[in-house]
UniProtKB/TrEMBL annotation:
Predominant location category: other
YknX-like C-terminal permuted SH3-like domain mapped to chain residues: 332-399
UniProt subcellular location: Cell envelope
One cellular component term from this protein's GO annotations in UniProt: cell envelope
Presence of the UniProt keyword Cytoplasm in the record: no
One Pfam family recorded for the sequence: YknX_C
Stretches of the chain forming a coiled coil according to its record: none
Protein's UniProt name: HlyD family efflux transporter periplasmic adaptor subunit
PANTHER family for this protein: EFFLUX SYSTEM COMPONENT YKNX-RELATED (PTHR32347), UPF0194 MEMBRANE PROTEIN YBHG (PTHR32347:SF29)
Alphabetic keyword roster: Coiled coil
Keyword Ubl conjugation listed: no
Length: 401
């Protein structure tokens, strides 16, 4: 009896040792990333990078050559069309005269004064002759009524008065011309200090007003200085009239249609902003990529569809990224692109069934940058392996990492 017990114990220990030995050589399950196939909405998008811009930006330029005072406005200040004064301008100061030009200007003044004196003397002469003829005409008219002189004599007296009146008007006009010549000659002697004093008598010599309602975007010329006509001074726009310009490859832009929905991403906020394609510019441009490759790009203009409160922190020329939705599939089976691979020129996945790997061929429909639509080969609720490595093959045991 004791011998039988010992024999049974020996066989039992041998069986346990054999089992442990077999268990030691059984390969451990490979840890993998699993994804559960499910029905979801698939958005097919084209992404691009761009920046915001105000639709209408108005640049205020200097209207004349002259001196502009310091612009007191700051970026962000509100302006009203026709009321807010952007800048004050004064005509440019004259140049200093050298000795020769100064002597010439003084001589011109003396000549203009002499000509003015002569013109005044001619006015006095014409006025005296007219007064004499008027008194003589009264006598002639009295004699005509008494039938002492003929009507022809009276008409010659009337013609003489009209002629003298015309000569008086000519003399007066000549006097005004001489006065303007004297003023012009005196202006040649005006020095910059005198011009500066005359300009400072008024608060605003030439007022430059805002052309539109909005805010000051940029100050292009801040300090007081002499500027040429056409110098840009200030940029003005309405921040509420904001849109997004996305640069896209021309090969992608042809797939976009006006009215397509879009999402503004990676703009700094916590949530994406809804937008819609407003315009696809008909002309492209060449741009050098970071790798030094010439690319043809097209500007796609997006208009915000979400309320202003959601994107009001954005301003002009802020960097954003956008995803334009070119296709949308609802309630379709989706798997990550990382689970798909080519096997004998067909799309396949590694499906997990009861802890074991099975090679499964699938048909792929629409895709975006992260997920793909599965039209056949899988069912909702099944599990597939994402990022399968070289140690994953059909028939091995796996477990979720």
């Amino acid at each position: 009896m004791v011998k039988q017990v010992k024999r049974i114990l020996k066989w039992l220990l041998a069986a346990i040792a054999l089992g442990l030995l077999i268990f030691a050589f059984i390969p451990e399950p490979v840890k993998v990333d699993m994804f559960t196939v499910k029905k979801d909405t698939l958005l097919v998008t084209l992404e691009g990078e761009g920046k915001t811009r105000i639709h209408d930006i108005y640049t205020v330029y200097a209207p004349i050559d002259g001196r502009i005072t310091r612009i007191e406005s700051e970026p962000g200040d509100r302006v009203t069309a026709g009321e807010t004064v952007i800048a004050n301008m004064f005509p440019a100061n004259p140049q200093f005269l050298d000795k020769r030009r100064e002597t010439q200007a003084k001589a011109d003044i003396e000549g203009a004064r002499a000509a003015l004196s002569l013109a005044k003397a001619r006015v006095k002469q014409a006025r005296a002759e007219l007064e004499f003829e008027l008194s003589d005409f009264k006598r002639t008219e009295k004699l005509y009524r008494q039938q002492t002189v003929s009507k022809a004599h009276l008409e010659r007296a009337q013609l003489r008065i009209k002629t003298l009146r015309a000569e008086l008007e000519t003399s007066l006009s000549n006097q005004e011309v001489m006065e303007s010549r004297l003023a012009a000659a005196q202006a040649m002697l005006v020095q910059p200090e005198e011009q500066e004093e005359a300009a400072n008598n008024g608060n605003c010599h030439i007022c430059i007003h805002s052309p539109v309602d909005g805010r000051v975007l940029r100050i292009l010329h801040k300090s007081e200085s002499i500027v040429a006509v056409g110098t840009p001074l200030v940029e003005i726009g309405n921040p509420a009239d904001l849109e997004v310009t996305i640069e896209m490859l021309s090969t992608n832009a042809v797939k976009v249609k006006t009215g397509d929905d879009a999402l503004i991403k990676r703009w700094g906020g916590e949530q994406d902003i809804g937008a819609r394609v407003r315009l696809i510019e008909p002309s492209g441009f060449t741009k050098i990529s970071a790798l030094g490759v010439e690319e043809q790009r097209v500007n796609v203009i997006l208009a915000f569809t979400d309320p202003k409160e959601k994107w009001q922190s954005l301003g002009d020329a802020f960097r954003v990224e956008a995803a334009i939705i070119t296709d949308k599939a609802e309630n379709v089976l989706t798997v990550p692109l990382s689970a798909l691979f080519r096997q004998e020129e067909k799309w396949s996945v590694f499906k997990v069934v009861d802890g074991y790997v099975m090679l499964q061929q699938v048909s792929v429909g629409r895709r975006n940058d992260r997920f793909a639509e599965i039209t056949s080969g899988l069912e909702a609720g099944e599990q597939v392996i994402s990022y399968p490595g070289n140690n994953v093959a059909a028939g091995i045991r796996v477990e979720k990492r």
